[in-house]
Each structure stands twice: as structure tokens, then as C-alpha cells.
Design a protein that fits this description.
mainly beta, two-stranded antiparallel ribbon, 2 helices, 10 strands, 11% helix, TNFR-Cys domain-containing protein, TNFRSF_decoy_receptor, glycoprotein, repeat
């Protein structure tokens, strides 16, 4: 019982280290040759599982290829394709990376409703902008 409080205290002393980050999440895998249920580590964001763990080897993870990503700890057989495309009246806010899909935003003068970018209405004669639209 003393170990957890010590780890908790150390996580506050050592920058970038936390108890949660030091242990990867796991998943159950049934070994096809032994029929034994193994507890395998998941692969970190930006990678996918290249091979299941075995009784003698850890899970093998591989980096995502170009234009592919995984945002969470996983045991996917391959990374997800960056399939978010910016369409009419949109522009790229954040490009696809190994850990994120592409993020689009509306171009200047447009606003988003239901995944579509609509042009802001223009003020009539004698009227002006009270608040700039988002």
C-alpha cells in the first residue's frame, strides 16, 4: 500500500511523469496456440498494433503511415485514414498528423451550421456591424 502514495508523490516532483502515464492501458487477447487469455499492452496514439503480444513477447506497435492517424491508445490492425476533407468555403485549420485527423474551419466571412459554412449576411443600407460573427 505504500507504493501508490510514493508514486503519487514522485509524480508531483518529476516533471512530465504521472502514475497514469507510466502504465499503458491493456486489453485481453486469447493466444491461438495456447488458448490462454493474455493481458496485452495497447499501442500509443500515432501507432497501430503490428503483432499481438505472446506469452514471451510484448505487443508490437508500428508508426502510422503518411496520411493516417490514431488519436487514442489502441489495438487496431492499421491506422485510420485522414478522411476529413475541407470543402467549399472551408480551409484547413490543422493538417492531418499521426495523432489527429485534419480539422477544417470556415473561411473568413462564413460561419458553420450543421457541418456547412454559410456566408454571413450583409447589413442593409444605413446599418452596420454590431458584433462580428464567428
Amino acid at each position: 500500500m505504500l507504493l501508490l502514495p510514493v508514486l503519487f508523490l514522485l509524480s508531483g516532483v518529476l516533471p512530465g511523469v504521472s502514475v497514469v502515464d507510466s502504465v499503458p492501458p491493456t486489453f485481453d487477447h486469447r493466444d491461438p496456440s495456447t488458448r490462454e487469455t493474455l493481458i496485452c499492452d495497447k499501442c500509443p496514439p500515432g501507432t497501430h498494433m503490428a503483432a499481438y503480444c505472446t506469452p514471451t513477447k510484448a505487443t508490437v506497435c508500428a508508426p502510422c503511415r503518411s496520411r493516417h492517424f490514431t488519436a487514442f491508445w489502441n489495438y487496431l490492425p492499421k491506422c485510420l485514414y485522414c478522411n476529413n476533407y475541407c470543402v467549399e468555403n472551408q480551409e484547413v485549420e490543422t493538417e492531418c498528423t499521426a495523432t489527429t485527423n485534419r480539422v477544417c474551419r470556415c473561411k473568413e466571412g462564413f460561419y458553420m451550421t450543421n457541418d456547412f459554412c454559410w456566408r454571413h449576411s450583409e447589413c442593409g443600407p444605413g446599418h452596420g456591424i454590431k458584433t462580428k460573427g464567428l
